[in-house]
Records
---
Amino acid sequence: MSTALQAAGLAAAGDAGAHRPLIITLFAAFVVATLFITVWAGRQTKDAADFYAGGRQFTGFQNGLAISGDYMSAASFLGIAGAIALFGYDGFLYSIGFLVAWLVALLLVAEPLRNSGRFTMGDVLAYRMRQRPVRTAAGTSTIVVSIFYLLAQMAGAGVLVSLLLGITSDAGKIAIVGLVGVLMVLYVTVGGMKGTTWVQMVKAVLLIAGTLLITFLVLWKFGFDVSALLGAAAEQSGKGAAFLEPGLKYGATGTSKLDFLSLGIALVLGTAGLPHILIRFYTVPTAKAARKSVIWAIGIIGAFYLMTIALGFGAAALVGPEEITASNKAGNTAAPLLALHIGGADTAGGAILLAVISAVAFATILAVVAGLTLASSSSFAHDIYANVIRKGQATEKEEVRAARWATVLIGVVSIALGAMARDLNVAGLVALAFAVAASANLPTILYSLFWRRFTTSGALWSIYGGLAASVVLVLFSPVVSGKPTSMFPSADFAWFPLENPGLVSIPLGFLLGWAGSLLSKDKPDPGKYAELEVKSLTGIGAH
Amino acid sequence: MTTDAPPPAGSRDHAPAPLTTERFAEIHRSAEFAELRRAHRSFTFPLTAAFVLWYLLYVLLSNYAGGFMGTRLYGNVNVALALGLAQFATTFLIAWCYARHAAGKLDPRADAIKSRTEAGA
């Protein structure tokens, strides 16, 4: 993908230089404001519960807002708007999967997790099991899922910021990835969960406000007639009525249809296994507050995804596919371009709207990477360092110190990987993170909470089996090699035909958990299960 | 077993004194806990199966029933878009139903067991 071409695309859309000072000012304002919040939150962070769980003092509404800020990533905002703008109806299917997924979290996971765990996903997975092996497994899958997700956000940040600021050199892009990395490490080490939560709340408000504004302007332009908007989008797309029907992206062959099914399953089952989402349930005082936060999140996230219809079809109708693909082949700049056009290209209004929407996208990325970094460093410190390496003998101070160092380490690793991954397929990495979460984490969470005969072996088979299956299948899929859009387009070692491994790896994760429990010599511990079940449903003894 | 050691004095994150395994087993066997568990599972399990199937039906229709999904209902709004919006509507509806069920049927039972246990543990 040629960045010169991208810059040229944006330049053709309007005055490329004029909006830059404003964009930089808004970016800087957001960074300064969030660093201020972080320092303020850091002063109130005293013990482990503050660092990992924000002192468990947030209300259901606050946490619902923060969950929304944690969940609606650059892939949602930029990716879905772009997918709808280019592929019409098939792009909208992402919005539906990402929302429906929340029902799994609401009905089965949020409250039991809040009642029976303390800081991490591993607390619940290891509750009934032998601590060291299961915590090691839980920590491993937490870190793998978070790093894949983190890479996608970093790559997205590189593309977006370099495009909007006109930075086209490799050194410039690496510097942007480095800046994002340094900021996320600062948010997490200084502000802990409290700082991260406030950053996510601010971001959620900005994102919803920005999306509402653009949605209102798009609908206004079409006289609040959705049918007219759809008609104009279909006409501009050059595909006619097919643009509003399923199949443009995934309907070509039997294999691509299976791929769509695979993606659909991974989206709906992945959310409730994402560690950075799960740890948010510990930031409220009770299971009831955890439930309220998910209800709020469903309302906020649902409203946002409904508005992606206006963003995506609006971009198709008002910007048009040629200009969008000229700017970015994957369509990632559809939303900023729509802002520019709706405000009026070559006018101050257009430049201001473009700057606002770009700043919102930047805020989105920073809030999500902070959540991901916190999830992985918490799991490293609490599951692996405190409970495996130190065998439960570490003090809270030592544990939090380990978490801060782990944050720095994860920051360095993700800056290095992000600098290398800056040209990778963003959507593929996010879908992979969802597939790994659904294959490796969700089966063990559900079996642990609801199946009496689940054992340590079952947990290990399921976590490692689901993790290995999803990573290996992606490695040998068209995402990595064999196609012009692959990571290594010149090589071809792909034998797995689907881009998303979920269709195979998710059932396999569930099957392995079941088989591992029944076939191994491990015996379940009925006393521990009774304890977990009573705790998870009643909240007795909850932290 | 190396579960979380009790937090040191001064931490605000302390849970009440842990109950014994026998005490948990006793609660687990009680009729009121069985009722709470039934009220939770008999509501959430079928509902989960229902919304997953409804979502899969929608994905499969998108995949294999393109003609039907393209049927126009009103202006440019076709069956595919209407069913997509219906997924949003059912998600909001299920969330609301669960909130009502939990407040009416689960919370009172859970609170009763919890307060009795913590009072007379």
---
Amino acid sequence: MHITQGTFSFLPALSDEQITAQAKYCLEKGWSLNIEFTDDPHPRNTYWEMWGTPMFDLKDPAGLMYELAECRKVHAGRAYIRVSAFDATPGWESLRLSFITDRPAEEPGFMLERQERGGRMIAYTTRAYAADRPAGARY
Amino acid sequence: MDANPDTKIDLDAAYLRSGVAEILDELDRELVGLRPVKLRIREIAARLLIDRLRREFGAGGQAPTLHMSFTGNPGTGKTTVALRMADILHRLGYIRTNQLVSVTRDDLVGQYIGHTAPKTKEILKKAMGGVLFIDEAYYLYRPENERDYGQESIEILLQVMEQRRDDLVVILAGYADRMDRFFTANPGFRSRVAHHIDFPDYGDEELFAIAEKMLASQHDRFDDGAAAAFRDYIAARRRQPHFANARSIRNALDRARLRQAVRLFEGRGRPMPVSDLITLVADDILRSRVFDHARAEEQP
Amino acid sequence: MDNVTATARKSRYDAGVMKYKEMGYFDLDYQPKETDILALFRITPQDGVDPEEAAAAVAGESSTATWTVVWTDRLTACEKYRAKCYRVDPVPGQEGQYFAAIAYDLDLFEPGSIVNLSASIIGNVFGFKPLKALRLEDMRLPVAYVKTFDGPATGIVVERERLDKFGRPLLGATVKPKLGLSGRNYGRVVYEALKGGLDFTKDDENINSQPFMHWRDRFLYCMEAVNRAQAMTGEVKGSYLNVSAATMEDMYERAEFAKELGSAIVMIDLVIGYTAIQSMAKWARRNDMILHLHRAGHSTYTRQKSHGVSFRVIAKWMRLAGVDHIHAGTVVGKLEGDPFTTRGYYDVCREMYNPMRLEHGIFFDQDWAGLRRMMPVASGGIHAGQMHQLLDLLGEDCVLQFGGGTIGHPMGIAAGATANRVALEAMVLARNEGRDILAEGPAILHAAARRCTPLAQALEVWKDVTFNYSSTDTPDFVPTLTPA
């Protein structure tokens, strides 16, 4: 299983050089960069843990790569890590790019639970197998 | 690429192409005095240019250490030269963005536990790609207080200066004697700093030339009396406390302009030539308290 | 001066017929107010009809006038209610055609009603005999009027946040064949396409509730497919469930059912009418549902340049009405679409302010007053081999719908979906890296195809498919260099 959240999940894992190039693009657009990580890959888990606060006013991708290296020291192989770019201009005020840079060594995937209801209706629940274990001990 | 020892290199062309010449010329033109500093900058620029060529032709090793220390009294041009240094490093391709982030201890060191690391890192990240200028860097180190947060900042700085040499050039600046003590107490810094530049105090004539440059940039001028008075002023001011070279000159001129304005205002009611508006006269200088002090010193 | 006016007035209301130009519907000195609604018409007068009189007639017939003088005008503030043609210009290069700009006072219109707006502006006047043809090219909707509409409930930004998908076009596919699949087979196509990498699948405009598949069946199977695909990929997925139906009651019933099943999005057709569209937009806003609009039927009146309503006007009305998605053309696909004209539509959908840009068919500055951006949808005859052109022409804030280009893949639907997704991500990555994707596009696709067999197959199968026909709806102005 390979979760396909984020902008570049259908491509081979990005190298540091490729991540740097994407970060450079974002900085040139005036967006601020942010690193997040999680061990709960549910598609509607919006709030991944923030690795520090968003990096406003960076001039060069080196700042992001420095923090990414620090974050990897703690979480690589045991969590998903993503880099996001935030655009504060009016009418956007939202993310403009968000891609996964690191994944746990193994991704067990999701169980789809079905609860039968009347009229052939089914209530669906998506549950990550990893979420059977407590947060912090999942991967 | 292997170096072919017979390949001919056009050093002149490389120098012109880099655009460094313009900056060095500008430095010569715009900054009064500072001969030894200018010499050192030329040396460093030459060394970096050669280094880059060596690597282009496959004869270089890893990127050189570029961290520097600028020592000298206040007002001797350290910040100005640091800005030019950023220009040079940028033109030679040693930094990616032509920016200089100038900070002091307060920008790096936090107020409470857990505050310093994120604060220092935020500054480092903002400066990455360019130059970080730490003024009065020795304030980071306060041995008298063993729980001072400055130590935490120093450790992060040292780590980044060593491991992220491609991403950041650090210039440490301050008084020569205190910087020496700082380096002695923190040998990690000394070993990571490749270039030491000492900024001498300006001579009286140099300070006068600086004053004239400052005036010209505002389209102001001294009349003959004022020029003579200002030479006396420089000699007197230097003997007094908190003398800060060019910075003291700038402050003195600002105050002289204020006195000129008051003088012109009080003389209103009769026609005045335009030239009066841009001319400082002896009285504008002589009414400075610096002369009171000087006279007081002479009397006893 | 007072005397002259008095005399003019007296004769103005004498019973009988007089020229529209003289009835107060034509005033070249009129300065449009900031609150006026402005319309630009292309008029083709009958032979022998004075263009200015024809333009005045359009202003008159689309506001207060009738064919003869009526004294009851004098019971109203008739000066204010008369639309005023304030400009007439010949259309460059089109003999016998004229652009007429007309200003309407805001009080002529009911707040928040597309039906009222359209009934006034295009209600009667398009059949007016002295004109051979008439086309509504563009409108300027004043901020005061824009603010009486809710606009899109999600639009581009909130939709992306709900789906957690940023920085690239969304990918969709219309289930094919358009007609005849049973609910069970239909759901299979949805599952394969979503599992393979698409974000959305879509009902076609005429999939409603036919003998071969009733709507409840379709919804149930589609949602099974959506949920399965979501669990297989860990990614939010959706399928536009078409709720278009004969009556509002039917549409509400279908929409409610879609919501109960947990769908993120429902779909309607333009042919349901403006009132139904606004009702569904309000329903979608109340129910946290993305609303997709298929522009079914629009080409009957948008395509020909001489007569009808430009699609840019329809797009403006739909942004006011509050749909979140709108089909806006592909340029390179199988359906009508000049690149510059299409660019104008996309700007109308996506920008917060449209400056006048004649070369894109935009005749007025338009301030959207904070109304959300609509997500344009590109659909019809596009495939992975055009990814560089699509990204370059349409940008990243759109939905690219590859129906045939997914389902027609030789190795199956999921392979087709994967091919499209890999092509898209590779192209976005390359563009962000600063590469010239128009020039290097094919090379970038082939490089990506070396690691992705389905993409290699797609590029091979559709390598020669293009639709190079000339467009009918092209801009009348081309950018020219003017001496400074």
---
Amino acid sequence: MTDQLLFAAEVTLNGLMAGVLYALVALGFVLIFKASGIFNYAQGVLALFAALTLVGFQNGQVPFAHLINAVFGGHLQSFGWQLPGAVAIVLTALVMVALAVLIERLVLRHLVNQAPIILFMATIGLAYFLEGFGDILWGADIKKLDVGLPQGISETVETLTDSLFGYGFFIDNLDIVATLVAALLVISLTLFSQFTKYGRALRAVADDHQAALSVGISLRFIWVMVWSIAGIVALVAGIMWGTKSGVQFSLSLIALKALPVLMLGGFTSIPGAIVGGLIIGMGEKLFEFFVGPMIGGATENWFAYVLALLFLVFRPQGLFGERIIERV
Amino acid sequence: MFYREAGDFKTSYSDDSQTFPIRFDRWRYYGVLAIAFGVIPFLINDYWANAVFVPFLIYAIAAIGLNILTGYCGQVSLGTGGFMAVGAYACYKLMTAFPEVSILIHVLLAGGVTAGVGVLFGLPSLRIKGFYLAVATLAAQFFLVWLFNKVPWFYNYSASGQISAPERTILGHAVTGANTTAASKYLFCLVIVFALAWLARNLTRGSVGRKWMAIRDMDIAAEIIGVNPLTTKLSAFAVSSFYIGVAGALFFSVYLGAVEVGEAFGIQKSFLVLFMIIIGGLGSIFGAFAGAAFLVLLPVLLKNILVGQLGWATDLAAHIELMIVGGLIVAFLIAEPHGLAQLWRLAKEKLRLWPFPH
């Protein structure tokens, strides 16, 4: 019985770690939703795009190599250099900022004052575009991402728990790093929004667009900033997921997993994103562990959505969301 | 000169409230029908049927269905693929359980089954709205696809986990299975599309449609003037799911013949149909047709140009297609949020004044 219990504890712990990764993606959603009321479906594709760009820079791939080869002939593959991880990450962050500027210029600026649902659909269009663009830019094959993060089973945890409970827990080093990074990210974002000038402007915009405009805050600048931050959060998420499971199309599907996280936590709350991520991650692992074998397994595909659906029926604004007040 | 109300005198109420009050519009409609029923079946070959006409007709049904829910009733759904899967599997179970009953009845019954499932997943719409509902419909999408994958009863315990349509005939012509002709497949779909589009057009013109639109425009205000949100939203889910279920049944039995649920009815299908109604125009039956035609023809066209003419690799063409579709959606939302249907409406306004615009 204790074995079973310890095993369940291990599953829970692993679920929590997976939940942190969901929360990382959800965080990007919340930032953009708070600042501009846009539900950014493209967040997952942003993570994919960031990871693709990172790998591309690291391996010195020639951008558009496939397209150039198809049009002009030839066999361009790579420049033949290897960039160190840190340099590539900085370059990719710059690309994400540039992308944020472009998105604001070309898309958002023209859609001011449209209904939220139109903006949502625009981000779906954006997601498709970026997906195709990323593939053309860097090629669609599955890539290995390695920026020097520790991987594999953590031996410290295993020996520690073995000596304590007589049963070694298997926990991936990468998950531990991801948890630390996520904590760091949340703390720095909170500090940023509480104690800096731009952070205050950001909160003002989130509170009331028009009031913020009237005291001289540039809405466009704030939007570019928010999309840049979301791009960088996407980069972090892309690095974690890419290291874990390779850089490939399915990376963009984690965006879909982040949706129930958001519904649980509430669209407007950063702590909500974290707590929601943890609940979903833990819930789906435990459900798969206890109930999955009875009904055929692979329940992870839908459990999160059904949980969120049931949850919403009782609390439509999520755990930490602002109360929805409707006026006629 | 020809697109005018002038000179077309209405002498009864039914004349006045007909679907196409302008004579030119009416004749154009009869003309399109005459070509669709009288000319195309004699010219069609397998390539055109499989690559263009049959998918166009089937997607048009799905798009009309989603348009009823999203465009007319304002409830965004991302569960289209899942509901199409319900239609397909219901049709398969019915076809194999009652081989002597006509396929037409099976297809309609499959729609009915889907309508029931749709109402079930539509229940949360009474509590939650907007994005939250969109995400809730994702639960339907993923759960249904998982269900059809995992429960062997649905695919009759076949080893591959696929379902494949046995041969069924209508009036002696095979419409499903291996021995179909292009014309019979096309005509079978066309008849169903014609009937369903006619029904949808008249539903949305009548009191049911007006209630849907009232809920879409502002649900609280609609409730105050006496529209019952429960029956209105659920009826939209039921009718919409019926259409989508019929589309799924046809997609499986007539178009593909054999499907694997995750591949044929995945989340991508939901987005594809959603894009059709965005590009075509939300809240317009014509828009559903226009959007379906556009997104069925675009890949065929791009493939012919990029792969056939320029000789590029197919994966490259697929990526460029993604980019173009995504770019077009953004461009459409910026330039014309009401889609192709609105362009058509504007063109008609211009025609009405032409050649003396002032």
